[in-house]
Amino acid sequence: MGDEESKRENDADRRRRSRECKMFQGPESEMKKRKEKEVMITLKPEEEVKKYKVMVTLDPDTAHPGLLLSEGGRRVIRADGPQPLPDTPKRFTAYDLCVLGSEGFTSGRHYWEVQLLQEGMGWTAGVAAESVERKRGITWSPEGGVWAVEREWLDGQYLALTSPLTPREEPLKLGVYLDYEGGRLSLYNADSMELLYTFSRVHFTHRLFPIFCLWCAELRLV
C-alpha cells in the first residue's frame, strides 16, 4: 500500500513538473519566435526593393512642349523654347514642365531609378494619378493626385510636397518604390539607399504613372 501511494505521489509530481515545464517553455518559445521575427525585420535591407525594378519609358504624348525627349524615351531635357506640339488632352501645357511614364500601375510593386545629370538644378519625381491636372497647373499634393519629392531650383531645398527634407548628401540618382496594395510610395538616394521619404497608408484608387518635372535639369532613366 505504501508503494502504491508513493507511486501515485511520484506520478502526480511528474505531471506537475510537466505542466510547469510546458508553462515555462510556452512563453520562451513564443519569445524566441518574436525575436527571430524581429531579427528578420532588422536585417532586411532596403536593397530588397530593387528586385521589383521595372523599365520605365517616357510618354511623348504627355510631354510639355518645353521638354525634349530622347528617341527611346529614356532621357529628358528642358528645351530652349516651346515646341510646336499638338495640344492633346494628355499633354501638360501649363507652367509645370512635366512628362509621365508610358505605363501606368493599378496593382503590384514597382521600382525605378532616375539619374540626375546636372547637380544643383530643380526637378520633381514620383507618381501621379491619371487624373492629374495638365492644363491649369498641378496641385502638388495627394489631394491633387501627386506623391513626389522635389528639389527647388532657387534655394536648393528638398521637399516631399510640403514637408522639408534634409538628405545626408545630395542624391544624384533617385530610386522610386511603389507598393500599390500596401499604400506606400518610398523615395531613396539610389546610390546609398538612404530613405528620403515615404508616403504611407495611402489608399490608391487611380492608375498611377511615374511623373518627372524639370525646371533647369536633365534626367535619364536607368
UniProtKB/TrEMBL annotation:
Annotated B30.2/SPRY domain residues = 36-222
In which residue ranges is the amino acid composition biased (Basic and acidic residues)?
1-14
The protein's UniProt keywords, in alphabetical order, are: Coiled coil
| Signal peptide bounds | none
Q: Region annotation Disordered: residue ranges? A: 1-36
Query: Which Pfam families has this protein been placed in?
Result: PRY, SPRY
Please give the start and end residues of each transmembrane region. Answer: none
**Domain of life, per lineage:** Eukaryota
Q: Which InterPro entries match?
A: B30.2/SPRY, B30.2/SPRY_sf, Butyrophylin_SPRY, ConA-like_dom_sf, PRY, SPRY_dom, TRIM/RBCC
**Name of the protein in question:** B30.2/SPRY domain-containing protein
Task: Please name the source species.
Answer: Pleurodeles waltl (Iberian ribbed newt)
